[in-house]
Amino acid sequence: MYFRLFLGLVGLSGALLYAQAQSQGVGIGILQPHPAALLHLESQQKGLLLPRLNRAERDAISNPPWGLVIFNTQDSVIEYFNGRCWIPAYAEGCDDCNFTLTVNPSSGVIDHVQTSSVQATITLTQLAGTPQPIAIQLYSTLPPYTSHSFTPPVLNGSGSSLLTITVEPLAPPGTYPVIIQAVCGRTIKNVIYTLTIDSCYRVNVVNSATNYNLTTANPQLPTTVPICVIVHTYPGVEISAASTSVPAFTTGNLHPQSVVALVHQGAFLGRGGNGASGAPLPNYSLPGSPGGDALHITARTYLYLQNGYIFGGGGGGASAGVEETFGFNTPIGNISFSVGISAGGGGGAQLGQGGSPSGNVTIGYFSPGQNGSAGLTATGGQGGQLNLPITYNAGPLTVTVTPQGYGGRGGDYGYPGREGYVRVCISGQISLPWPFPSIPINKGCLPPGGVILQSGGAPGYAIRRIGGVPLYSYPDGPYLTGFLKGRIGP
């Protein structure tokens, strides 16, 4: 009897609670639940714990009702079933783009010697919706002298992209957070990659010099291990060479795996080639000497021309000369004589010496070449000029030899020396004893078309890559610009 009475009371209490819930809702932690709430929870110490399922467990729910709510432990998001699919609480429909974004590795270090770039794999996994284009970009700004690329930059749904960050030696050292952002519709997600850039040695060249060798002038630079060094030549600094056998500036004896960043605001001037001197018989002509190089690089080099000048020395001009033997039949017998003339080549730009007679050569007439001038605006010297009449007397024979020609001009910066040109014109008379009349002579000009003889010297290199080391970013070839004159190459 008592048991039946107890059950009756429990039933009555449940009915009353149901009636109360129907009228004002149920409150937990609050005596007066909000009238609009069926269930009103209040606590300053506890929260609502939803069922926690991963994707496989969630998808195993059979016929989930519309509005069923869970916490997805795999994606750390509250999801609900909308009658067609499970979607995050923030999404508006099944076709909204929902994805995860990861980066691996999450950091990288640039030391410039072993590494000039770093790579990381960006992985996207689309969790809901039909596959959609997901664009990847950097949200933060990289430091100067740094570039990046994504391959590919857009993914269609799930997939991976390779991020490559390339850093030049001039990039400021430090540690930089790099924000990688992926955008799909209204969904934006970010992940952070940490980039660290190491520092380089620094050398400032503030005074003009001759035959500058980087490692000799800076003994603090290690030469037995690879290093990164930034070399800054300042405006107004002029580095020249004392001869064509050495460059004006060389990176010296650095370890071949080192890296050089050359910030150039000064001038590197290769020595000019010498003009050719008078030559032995039979043609009195020699080729001009080549010009000297402006810059030798012995390690990987980044060149930053900031109104700086790199000029290979001009080639020396060739000498020009000719010897002609003339014979004349006269009433008193045959008379002959030989004429030798020669002109030296001009010196190349940047102090190339003009050609002069060599010590063991006997020349009837020689015109020396001029020296090349010096400095940033230097020009090649003129070759010797052959234009003054010369009179020869041989007994009754008086001959006037008028040479026409010149030695090759010395080359300007980046230009070869030139060839010479020569011919001689003969006139005169034979004065015979009485009763014979004087006989005029006109042999004309010999050779008839003139002679272009030896070639001028080649210009010096603007930049010679010793051992084939790379140069960024100037391809090999000849240059005749306002800042580069001469060839770049090995």
Molecular structure report:
- The chain is mainly beta and 490 residues long.
- The protein has three domains: 47-94; 98-197, Immunoglobulin-like (Sandwich), CATH 2.60.40.10; 205-489, no CATH class.
- It is built from three helices and 38 strands.
- Strands 17, 18, 20, 21, 23, 24, 26, 35, 37 and 38 form a ten-stranded mixed β-sheet that branches. A five-stranded mixed β-sheet has the order 8-15-14-10-12, with no helix packed on it. It has a five-stranded parallel β-sheet with strand order 16-19-22-25-36, with no helix packed on it.
- The radius of gyration is 45 Å and the shape is rod-shaped.
- The termini are far apart.
Summarize this entry quickly.
This protein is mainly beta. It contains 3 helices and 38 strands.
Provide key terms for this protein.
490 residues; mainly beta; five-stranded mixed sheet; 3 helices
Helix content: under 10%
What is the domain total for the residues?
3
The average pLDDT is 89
List unreliable stretches of 5+ residues: 1-21
The radius of gyration over CA amounts to 45 Å
Strand content: 35-45%
Give the topology, please.
Layout: H1 2-24, E1 26-28, E2 39-41, E3 52-53, H2 55-59, E4 69-72, E5 77-81, E6 86-88, E7 98-104, E8 107-110, E9 117-128, E10 133-138, E11 146-151, E12 154-156, E13 159-167, E14 174-184, E15 187-197, E16 201-205, E17 209-210, E18 212-213, H3 214-217, E19 228-233, E20 238-240, E21 249-250, E22 259-264, E23 267-269, E24 295-297, E25 300-305, E26 309-311, E27 320-330, E28 333-343, E29 365-367, E30 385-386, E31 390-394, E32 397-406, E33 421-430, E34 439-452, E35 463-465, E36 471-472, E37 477-480, E38 484-489
Parallel strand pairs: 1-2, 3-4, 8-15, 16-19, 17-20, 18-21, 19-22, 20-23, 21-24, 22-25, 23-26, 24-35, 25-36, 26-38, 28-29, 35-38
Antiparallel strand pairs: 4-5, 5-6, 7-9, 9-13, 10-12, 10-14, 11-13, 14-15, 27-28, 30-32, 31-32, 32-33, 33-34, 37-38
